[in-house]
Design goal:
5-stranded mixed beta sheet, 2 domains, binds zinc ion, mainly beta, 7-stranded antiparallel beta sheet, Glucose Permease (Domain IIA), 311 residues, globular, single chain
């Protein structure tokens, strides 16, 4: 164990900024220590002339690296909206063209982000479900779990990501914590864009339609698999114009926004999931390199409110 710890320390030293492994053409540049806020994304890269492939793991989730065609390998890491603030390690293995494996551990710190909080009281039993509704909810949960369990290994997306609709985020947006009758509910896991009903909803990037259907909470829903563990979701659609199993290109129309499912007004719920972390989809616009597209903070007042946690 002691030998292992010593080795880990050695590797961390190597992984610190501007330090590289070995000398000459074999050097590898590892990522710097990572700090990430709840619901956010960060890009990391590993580079070196001799590297053929890079594999990564953060806790029990796989971190998928894609080569840039030169000597770099990039991945995106996300922290779940409800991730516990903690210190962890990104475990990396770089394999050279000659088959040598070189390992590194990069410290990862997950930090709390302050989200808006809403507290209100409703009559008891307001969300009591009929047996039919409960059956529908189970079907919905099973359908989503099935697609998230089988992500496409191939990277389908390319930078930049685009907005699915031009509208701003509403106040009931990503990470909102609701406390109902004193009891905290699950945080809102998507960004609600204030699109009027009938707005065309575009694919944020290339991908495969892995779910297209109508559900109790999410209403008319489309889920896109972009590969490497990244999914985006589009909920409450009034019309779906794509079928499961088909491929779409960035900008293709997936359907029309609406007010289906458990909502009180028309809007687009846009969600993103990376290696099972629920992240703010606006992060895809802000953090993916090459084409930075910084957005102004939303100033739109709350004009609708959903009753369902996370939808
Ligand atoms: Zn929503």
């Amino acid at each position: 164990m002691r030998a292992l710890l010593t080795f880990a320390t050695f590797v961390i030293l190597l992984a610190s900024p501007d330090t590289s492994y070995g000398a000459g053409p074999g050097k590898i540049v590892w990522p710097k220590p990572i700090e990430i806020l709840q619901g956010e994304l960060i890009e990391v890269s590993v580079s070196g002339q001799e590297i053929a492939a890079v594999e990564g793991r953060l806790d029990k989730e796989k971190v998928v690296f894609f080569g840039d065609g030169a000597s770099g390998f990039n991945a995106i890491i996300g922290a779940d909206v409800d991730a516990k603030p903690a210190s962890s390690k990104l475990r990396l293995t770089a394999r050279t063209h000659t088959g040598t494996e070189i390992n590194a551990e990069i410290p990862v710190t997950i930090k709390v982000k302050s989200f808006r909080q809403e507290s209100f009281h409703v009559p008891p039993g307001f969300d009591r479900m009929t047996p039919e509704s409960l059956t529908e909810i189970r079907r919905e949960q099973a359908a989503f779990a099935r697609v998230f369990a089988a992500p496409s290994a191939e990277r389908l997306w390319e930078a930049p990501f685009i907005r699915p609709v031009p509208h701003e985020a509403s106040a009931s947006s990503f990470g909102l914590r609701r406390i109902i009758n004193g009891k905290p509910r699950a945080p809102h896991s998507g960004t609600d864009l204030s699109s009027p009903a009938g707005t065309e909803v575009n694919a944020t990037n290339h991908g495969k339609i892995v779910l297209a259907g109508n559900f109790f909470f999410a209403g008319g829903s489309v889920v896109l698999d972009h590969g490497g563990g990244l999914f985006t979701m589009y909920f409450h659609l009034s019309e779906i114009r794509v079928g499961e199993g088909t491929r779409v290109r960035k900008g293709d129309v997936l359907g029309l926004s609406g007010a289906t499912g458990r909502v009180t007004g028309a809007h687009l719920h846009w969600g993103a999931r990376l290696a099972n972390a629920r992240v703010d989809p606006l992060e895809l616009l802000k953090k993916i390199s090459n084409h930075r597209q910084l957005l102004p903070e939303s100033t739109t007042p709350a004009n609708e409110m959903e009753k369902k946690d996370g939808a």
